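hiii so um. not sure if this is the right channel but i have a protein structure encoded as tokens and i wanna go backwards to a sequence. like what aa goes where. can anyone help
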């Protein structure tokens, strides 16, 4: 590992590069706060581009025409580049051509092969965005795919830390970072040893920033967002949010685990291991304090209110009207892991076992197919899971008032419940 250096890692998400004005603002932040000193800038796809690419892939895969949608995506990026005074055609032609051939390749593949094609297609959001941002900043554009090494778990690539660390240190020696221009690279994507592209899971660019900081021994990571810092709730859901000026790694990991949408759950651990502080700041008010996530002790925190939508509740009963035994649980857990469904909450009663899961119809179908023989299975969809971390009476009353709780669980710090959406 490099000695802990002056290196800063900045991460800009989709909202902070959504149009030419946003990229100009990014440029000001880099000039005024990031430089001088070595800087690596991690950029996500512009605005809602990742969703647009998902939709394009779906069209291509199902053999429907997609020229209009592809044209819209291309001209959107070209227009932004042009507005920034960049030679759009020259800058983007090659990438757009590659994207088109990836879409052609995705037509008519078997559903089991679709995830692999997903990564080859959806990764272009970050590739295009970084081309534009790097050119605008006159920075070095770095293709991270040969460096961020993952296995072949498509859409959720698992990182090979030692290969990644060695590759990043070789590609980005500190002396070069110190003397040269800033480096601009993609969030969210990586590559396999065989040279195929992978993605790290939706919203994974935060994790990329942490990987870079960990492997290069950065002094800090800053995530630039459209909110004032780490808040106790999503302001789109709860109007009266409070910012935490500082918070420990541990608390943040727990909040991310419960589904707080502020920071990708995998981001914190690598930073905590190497003691690298994570700053969350507003790109709209770059001089404001934001939140410092680091190794700190604090008193009781304002309760965090977290909502996860699109949940389902699945309950298993043994067919013989037997108790749910450890042997039964072993089978259920095994299949959940195989189909990659994560348990958000679980509860056991005499003859049934219930789990709250993200509602992913394909995976749920696989689960049912494998377990129906052995269990009677019921499930409800269209549910929400609420978590109050560091709850108090007021926050508890506020969230539960007027709702029918289908499942609830309480520990000393945390109260969780599942209810119908709305
Ligand atoms: N562009 C990707 C997504 O929208 C990754 C990210 O934004 O962090 O999921
Ligand atoms: Mg995004």
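sure thing!! here u go:
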């Amino acid at each position: 590992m490099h000695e802990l250096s002056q290196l800063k890692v900045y991460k800009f998400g989709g909202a902070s590069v959504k149009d030419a004005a946003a990229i100009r603002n990014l440029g000001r932040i880099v000039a005024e706060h990031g430089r001088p000193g070595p800087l690596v800038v991690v950029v996500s796809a512009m605005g809602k581009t990742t969703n647009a690419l998902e939709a394009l892939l779906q069209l291509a895969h199902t053999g429907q025409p997609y020229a209009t949608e592809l044209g819209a995506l291309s001209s959107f990026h070209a227009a932004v580049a042009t507005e920034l005074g960049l030679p759009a055609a020259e800058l983007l032609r090659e990438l757009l051509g590659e994207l088109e051939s990836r879409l052609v390749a995705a037509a008519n593949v078997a559903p089991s092969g679709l995830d692999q094609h997903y990564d080859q297609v959806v990764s272009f959001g970050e590739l295009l965005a970084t081309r534009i941002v790097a050119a605008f900043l006159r920075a070095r554009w770095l293709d991270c795919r040969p460096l961020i090494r993952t296995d072949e778990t498509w859409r959720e690539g698992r990182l090979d830390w030692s290969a990644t660390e060695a590759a990043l240190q070789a590609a980005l020696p500190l002396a070069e970072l110190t003397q040269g221009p800033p480096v601009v690279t993609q969030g969210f994507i990586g590559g396999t040893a065989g040279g195929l592209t992978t993605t790290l899971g939706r919203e994974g660019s935060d994790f990329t920033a942490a990987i870079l900081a960990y492997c290069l021994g950065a002094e800090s990571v800053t995530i630039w967002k459209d909110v004032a810092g780490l808040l106790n709730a999503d302001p789109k859901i709860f109007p009266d949010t409070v910012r935490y000026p500082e918070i420990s790694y541990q608390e943040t990991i727990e909040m991310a685990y419960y589904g707080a949408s502020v920071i990708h759950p995998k981001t914190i651990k690598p930073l905590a291991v190497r003691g690298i502080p994570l700053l969350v700041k507003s790109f709209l008010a770059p001089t404001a304090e934001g939140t410092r996530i680091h190794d700190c002790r604090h008193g009781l925190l304002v309760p965090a209110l977290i909502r996860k939508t699109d949940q389902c509740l699945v309950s298993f009963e043994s067919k013989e009207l037997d108790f749910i035994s450890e042997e039964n649980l072993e089978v259920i857990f095994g299949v959940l892991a195989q189909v990659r469904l994560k348990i958000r909450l679980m509860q056991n009663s005499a003859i049934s076992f219930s789990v709250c899961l993200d509602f992913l119809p394909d995976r749920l179908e696989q689960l049912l197919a494998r377990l129906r023989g052995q269990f009677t299975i019921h499930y409800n969809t269209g549910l929400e899971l609420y978590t109050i971390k560091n709850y108090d009476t007021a926050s508890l009353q506020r969230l539960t008032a007027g709702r029918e709780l289908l499942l609830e669980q309480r520990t000393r710090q945390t109260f969780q419940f599942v209810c119908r959406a709305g």
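oh and The mean pLDDT is 95.
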